[in-house]
Amino acid sequence: MSVPGVGRVVATVSVSTLPELGQLSSKKLSSLVGLAPFNRDSGKLRGKRRMVGGRAIVRSALYMSALVAVQHNPVIAAFYQKLLKAGKAKKVALIACAHKLLNSLNAMVKHQQPWRELAS
């Protein structure tokens, strides 16, 4: 809960429904939660990337946390603004922020350290 934007609900949901937190790599954890984009390519066809499957309760909690973090967490807010300036859609940028939050939480649990703004 030391991360700005992560409250009691997100911390409880993350710890209780995601026991793999701190044990998996960021790619595997993102796929497990459902925040990893999967491509729909075939031959020369390049389809849209979509997120499928995963643990919906954790994904929705992280999305709501990203909404708050964009306003109150300077690291996430700067990342969000950078994505918007690059032309990304707002929802895509929010999902990227949720992905960044998940990676931060994973690293914090793995190394058993509180949030440090400069390290993110």
Unreliable segments of 5+ consecutive residues: none
Query: Could you report the average pLDDT, rounded to the nearest whole number?
Result: 85
User: Into how many domains do the coordinates divide?
Assistant: 1
Please compute the radius of gyration using only Cα atoms: 15 Å
The computed structural class is: mainly alpha
Globally, the shape reads: globular
Please provide the count of β strands.
0
What is the terminal separation in angstroms?
15 Å
Number of helices: 5
Task: Report the sheet with the most strands, covering strand number, pairing sense and barrel closure.
Answer: none
Q: Strand-residue fraction?
A: under 5%
Order of helices and strands: HHHHH
Name the helicity range. Answer: 55-70%
What does this structure look like?
By secondary structure, the protein is mostly helical. It has one domain. Helix content is 57%, strand content 0%. The protein has five helices and no strands. The chain has helices spanning 8-17, 26-33, 56-72, 74-85, 90-111. The relative contact order is 0.19.
